[in-house]
């Protein structure tokens, strides 16, 4: 869960007024979307030259 644990997710849901059962049911869908978006951002970063500039600065 990207560094979270289920207790943290349930606590966040409780703080937002979301029933625990809803959190447990929705969490896999939310997590999958978070991973998709993170991967998209990583790919975007590879295409803008930042990765190459990092390599050249390490030499």
**Can you tell me the overall shape?**
elongated
The parts where pLDDT drops under 50 for at least 5 residues are none
Radius of gyration: 17 Å
Helix-and-strand structural type: mainly alpha
SS elements, strand count: 0
Task: Describe this protein's structure.
It is built from 3 helices and no strands. The protein has helices spanning 6-15, 20-47, 50-58. The longest helix has 28 residues, at 20-47. The model has no long low-confidence stretch (mean pLDDT 80). It is 80% helix and 0% strand.
Features:
59 residues, mainly alpha
Summarize the structure.
By secondary structure, this protein is mainly α.
Secondary structure layout:
Layout: H1 6-15, H2 20-47, H3 50-58
């Amino acid at each position: 869960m990207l560094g979270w644990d289920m207790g943290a997710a349930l606590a966040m849901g409780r703080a937002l007024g979301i029933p625990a059962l809803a959190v447990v049911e929705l969490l896999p869908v939310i997590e999958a979307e978070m991973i998709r978006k993170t991967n998209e951002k990583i790919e975007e970063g590879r295409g803008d030259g930042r990765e190459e500039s990092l390599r050249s600065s390490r030499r």
